[in-house]
Amino acid sequence: MFLRKIRQKRTSEATGTEKVYESLQLVESCRTEAGPRQKLLLNLGPIPLEKEDYKAFTQELQARLTGQTQLLRKRRKDSLVSQLVNDAYERLMRKTAQPIQTGPEREMKRIDVNSQEISQCRSVGGEYVCHLFWKKLGLPEFLKSVNVSDANMALIEALVVGRLMAPGSERATREWLEKRSGLWDLLKLNDIPSLSSFYRAGDVLFSHKDKLETHLQAQETRLFDLKNTMVFYDLTNTYFEGRAEKNSKAKFGHSKEKRYDCKLVTLGLVVDEQGFAKHSQLFSGSESEGSTLKGMIEKLGIPQEKKAVTVVLDAGIATAKNLEWLKENGYGYIVCHRGKAPKNPNGTDIAPETIHSISETDTQIKVVRYEVEDDTYLKCRSEKRALKETGMRTQKETRFLAELTHLQSGLSIPRRTKSYTRVLEVLGRLKERYPSVSRLYEVTVVPEAAKEVTDPSLQATALQWTKKEAVYQEAIDSEGDYTLRTNRSEWGTSEIWNAYISLGRVETAFRNMKSHLGFRPIFHQCEERADAHLFMSVLAYHLLQAIEHTLRQRGDTRSWWTLRNTLATHQAYTLAYDELSDSQEWIKHHVRSTSLPDHDQKHIYSLLAVPHTPFKKRRISLKM
Description:
It contains 20 helices and 19 strands. The chain is of the alpha+beta class. The strands form 4 sheets. Strands 8-7-6-9-10-16-13-12-11 form a 9-stranded mixed sheet, sandwiched between helices. A 5-stranded antiparallel sheet has the order 4-19-18-17-5. Helix 11 links the parallel strand 9 (310-313) and strand 10 (332-336). The longest helix has 27 residues, at 383-409. The model has no long low-confidence stretch (mean pLDDT 87).
C-alpha cells in the first residue's frame, strides 16, 4: 500500500473564486483481468503529513495490520505519524471489517496466545440504548420521508445521542464520537466528518422542526398510550457567551440563572401529564411570559374536543387576558392566582380540608375551597413550603441588615462612604437586591442639619431603620400560602391540587436540559445555529423521557444519569491476535467485538426487551 495525493478545484458560490484542495488517499496495487490497477482503501483527507513521511506512515500501518515488528530508528516525527496511523487503523476497521459467520459447532484454531492485543476501547452501552429508542420513535423513517441523506441522518443521530452521553457543543460532540464513543459501530460510519458537516446536519434537522415534533407527538401517544387530557406550559431562558449581534432573539432580560451580564434566549415548552414534550418554541430573551401562551397552545393541534383538555400554568403566565382567552376557546385551566385572591364569600371561619400528595404521601396541604363567579379558588397552606420560605426570608433579611449595619458604621470611620447622595445610592441598590425584605423596613438617612439637600458637600450623619410591624407580621403569616384558580369546578379538591403540582414536570424537563443535555451556555453567534443547538437538547429530552418512562412502566425508577453510569462499562473493543493456518502461514486477525454485559446491564437490557449484544463481531484478516 502507498499514499497518493489528489487535488480538487472548487469554486466558492459566495465569492466566485476558485480554490484548490489537497488530500491524501491510501491505495494498494492489485491485479485485475484488465491489468494492474490501484485500489482505493481509504480517503485520509488533508492530514498534516509531509511527503518524506509517506513511506514511514504506510510501513507502520502495514506493520500494525500484519503484526510485524518495526526495526527502523525512532525519529522526532514518529509520535505524529503514530497518531495518524492509529486514526487510519480505526477507520479501516470501520470500513473493511466483515461480519464473522458463526455456526452451531465450535471452531478450533491454533493461535499465539502471547500475540493478543486489545485496542480501541469505546463505551457502547448507553449509546446502544439511545440508538434503539431513536429507531423506536421512528426517527430514521421520518428523516428519510423528508429527504434527509443517509450521511446527515447518521450525523443528526450522533448529535442528539451525544447530548445524552456527553453533553456539550457540536465540536465537543465530534471529539467524543471520534475518541470515546462506540456509536460509530452502530451507525456504521466509515469516517468522522468535518466539524462543518455537523453544523450543516443541525441546520437540516431544525428545518424540519415542526413536522418532527408533530411526528413525535403522534408516535409517543401510540407507543405509550398517552391520554393527552392535560398540558403543562412554562418558560425558561439561557444565556449566550459573546455579543450574539447576529441573533435577533438575543436580548437582555430577567435571567433565571442570574446572568444579567449576558444576552438571553427564552424557551417555551409544553409537556403532558407524563412529562412528554409536545411542542417547543424559542422566543426573544426579553419576551414577556404572558404573551407567549396563545401561539403555543394553538400550535399543539389538539384533535379531540378542546373542553377535554386542561391547561396548567404558573402565575407568571396566568394573566387575566390569557385566562379570558382560554375561557373563550373552551379550554379548562388550573393556575396559580396572580396577586391578591378575592375574598371567600362564605366568610373566614370555614375549617380547612386536609389533602395529601399523590407522589409524596407525607406531604399534607390544608385547603379552603370556595367559588367566586364561574371559577373555583383553593386557598392552600403548606407547612413544608412555609419552612422553605421562612428560611429564604431569614437568609435575605440577615444579609440586608448586615449591609445596613456596615453602611451605618462607615459614617463614623475615616475613608468610608459618608456623602448623603452616595449613601442614598447604596441604599437604593440594597433595596433592589433584597426587594422582598426591604419592604418590611422603614429606612431613613439623616443628613447634616445646617446644609441644603442640594449641597454637593452634604454628608449623612446617621442611618436609621425600623420594622414595619403590621407588614412584617402579614408577611410571616402568609409564608406557605398560595391560591389556585380553576374553571374545573366539577373536579375534586385533591385532584385540582395534584394536577397543579404536576407542573413540576416542566421544571424537571428544564432542569434536565440545563444540567445534563448541553442546553447552556450558547456559543453560537448566528441565530439559525443557536436555534438548532437548543432544539437538539429538546430532541434529546424526547429520547430521555421515552427511556425513563419505559423503565418506570416495568418497575425501574432509576434516572437516565444512573443508567448511563451503569452502562458505561459495557465497552466495544478491537482484539488482534496471530493464527497459524493449516498451510503453516501466520495470519493476523483484527476482531471488533463487545465485552460481556454484567448482571445489572443485562437486567436493563431485559427490561427494555433488547438483545444483550449491541452488534455482531466483525473481522479483518491479513497474512503476516
